[in-house]
Amino acid sequence: MDMVSSDKFVEDYVANLSKTQISMSIPMWDCHILNLQTSDAESTLVVRIHHSLGDGTSLMSLLISCSDELPSFPVMKKPGSAGTGRFSTWFWRCWNLLFLTWNTLVDICMCVATTYLFKDTETPLKAPSGSVAFTSRRIVRRTFCLGDVKSVKNATNTTVNDVMLAITQAGLSRYLNRRYGKAKISDNGEWETNLPNTIRLTATLFINMRSSPGIYALEEMVKKKSKAEWGNKIGYVVFPFKIALKDNPLDYLKDAKATMDRKKATLEAKFRLFMAKVFVKFYHTKLAAFPLTSMWFSNVAGPQDQISIFGNPVAFIAPSLYGQPAVLTIHIISYEKKISVVLSVDDNIIPDPYNLCDDIEETLKLIKNTTVSLRGLMNN
């Protein structure tokens, strides 16, 4: 069997696996070893775990605890205070508190409005109903050089998460433009738009709610009163993607950073986590369920060093899920010097997920080349 056939076999195997459910009468996890050489690895280990056992941070901790040697992880930096003097420090703390309170009140109102009133535009990425949670999923991935993402991050004073959100937004815009009509390039080299004037496309963006948000060994997570708690400790915010074709690729990064900075200055994620706990336990309502956004988005930092399990080096890590009420879920995972975009799609609605991967990859190249050009102009 050639490499292309091997890759397709593994992809189809995982897709068929998503058609089945985990039995509740036995431990809610299983492992599948596919002893088949692919273009990435000598063999593939597929681990299926019920989400009730833990979130991405918990399961990543479980993975590294199974490795032969504990790897290092990116350090989570805490934001510093704006002022150094006593008065300026007091002023900025009061201002930030007022800003946080106002943003939270606005987001709580938007939370209710999004649940009952505002709906996403009917696009080729929009689920027709919540019944898509019971359909099978095709899981594909595309891997980039982490150094390219970091070079854009450093040149634009943003974060890795900002860059990945930006290239996702741009990739979605290019993909939808193609889906709405045959994409054409005008005489001056610019893409002709087939997009409607206004598209409301939101994502459920998950956030680690632990007081210590890094990745820790399993031994540390299961300790009593540990700040790195085991389990599902995630909240989420509704993140609006601005779908449009922009002449300057850096405009996608500006939009993503501005929106993400706004989401950081709010308690929306904690409020939604509170709603899920209270309403599910005492009063069932729409507010306790996930909003019907067009997609889900998650970003998890993986090991900075290569890990091995029982002497077998791990070539790649690709987390994903099925059973969600969205036809598209994007997971971002960094590992060693690479960063991967993992798509989980309902291929009855998104039949060409590799085209979306191509659009995301092409956007990263455009943004990187633009930052390099601007840096060259500044140096001259």
From TrEMBL:
It is found in: Cell membrane; Endoplasmic reticulum membrane. Keywords: Acyltransferase, Endoplasmic reticulum, Transferase. The keyword Metal-binding does not apply. Signal peptide: none annotated. This is Diacylglycerol O-acyltransferase. Pathway: Lipid metabolism; Glycerolipid metabolism; triacylglycerol biosynthesis. Residues 230-368 form the O-acyltransferase WSD1 C-terminal domain.
